[in-house]
Write a structure and sequence with these properties.
globular; 2 domains; 6 helices; 6-stranded mixed sheet
Length: 205
């Protein structure tokens, strides 16, 4: 009969952070709001990309591709995708700023049949080859009034170009072009203040 040999293996202690500790190790960027774990390299790379995308439309730089355009650029279904991306960046910045549920533009420029009938389009606001904001318009039927007309779906101006008359100097032209113009709700406090001061649009919810 073989003698029984018993080996004693010391226990290996593995420290597993509690759920509370794991949550506390997550960081939230004060600027872009990105949630990430600073100790993980992949998370840091993700945050850097997200942070840059967040700041790009808010503090825009001159875009060489816009040098060939004079004034604002109309963006519709026939426009190249890079122009749709610039409008999308503005719409996404508005979503984040106002905490909306959806981005009010498609970065790929895909216009559905129903949207094509509404002639949905945007104007990329350009100053010295710099995309400083965007505004979107479409033809809508207002069932509560039994009529149709143009509606401004959204408008947004980059942080570094605010309080410089970017919207004011374009407003009269838009009101004349799209009269009678309505503005889609909800409205930001800044937009409500602007409309109270400048008028020219019907506030349909």
């Amino acid at each position: 009969m073989f003698n029984e040999i018993i080996y004693s293996i010391p226990a290996i202690k593995v420290r597993i952070p509690s759920l509370k500790q794991q949550i506390l190790n997550h960081g939230a960027c004060d600027v872009c709001g990105c949630l990430y774990v600073p100790q993980i390299a992949e998370n840091r790379r993700f945050h850097r990309k997200h942070h840059a995308e967040h700041l790009r439309p808010r503090f825009p730089k001159p875009n060489p591709r816009l040098a060939d355009y004079s004034g604002d650029v109309k963006v519709d279904a026939s426009s190249p995708r890079w122009l749709h991306q610039l409008v999308y960046d503005c719409a996404r910045a508005l979503k984040r700023e106002e905490r909306y549920d959806l981005v009010q533009w498609d970065k790929r420029g895909d216009i559905e049949a129903s949207d094509d009938k509404r002639d949905i389009h945007a104007f990329l606001m350009v100053e010295k080859s710099t995309p400083v904001g965007a505004a979107s318009f479409s033809w809508v039927t207002r069932e509560e009034c039994g009529d149709s007309g143009w509606c401004m779906n959204f408008v947004w101006v980059a942080d570094s170009w605010r309080k410089k008359g970017m919207l004011s100097k374009r407003w009269a032209g838009w009101v004349a072009k799209y009269a009678p113009l309505s503005v889609e709700h909800p409205l930001s406090d800044a937009m409500e203040s602007f409309l109270d001061k400048n008028g020219g649009a019907c506030n349909y919810p």
